[in-house]
Predict the 3D structure of the following.
Amino acid sequence: MSPKRREMHFGVFVLGTGNHSAGWRYDDIIALNITALTHLAYAAAPAFVSRGAGTIINLASVVGISPETLNGVYGASKAYVLALSHSLQHELGAKGVRIQAVLPGATATEIWDKAGLPVKNLPASIVMSPEDMVDAALVGLDQGELVTIPSLHDGDEWTRFEAARRALSKRFGNAAPAPRYRIGAPASADRAGRA
């Protein structure tokens, strides 16, 4: 066990789970990756805010940004984990609470066997050991990463992706639909003319 893992103490919540398959009921995936995670995060946050310190680590997955890779409900639930983490960073960051989303790729755990796809059947080149994943996640936390993707070798790729996402989100607020939808004069123009 690495020294980093032994240093973990109350004040750090690691939320989320590993991989799931069609063998899991969709309600179970939602209950675990969305409902339970949300309740735990919001249960811990007030105490952390009152202390002015604390860390919440949300375990998402690379399928949260690549949902077509696995089961749709699983991918969507992990996208939720990432979205909630971004929101919590915005809400709690200035109050001394650190939020990290960890997006592992394939990790060598027993969950693959339970899902009916033994990990030994995956290409060894894409499967990370749980120990390496956890160590990388904790180093990412120490480095101040808000999102840690242990298997992504070029961290600048995530930085560019995130910058593009944030730039795009600044262009969502428009009263009129985009011209490519060719709806003619938007209803908002009619309302403005009558005012």
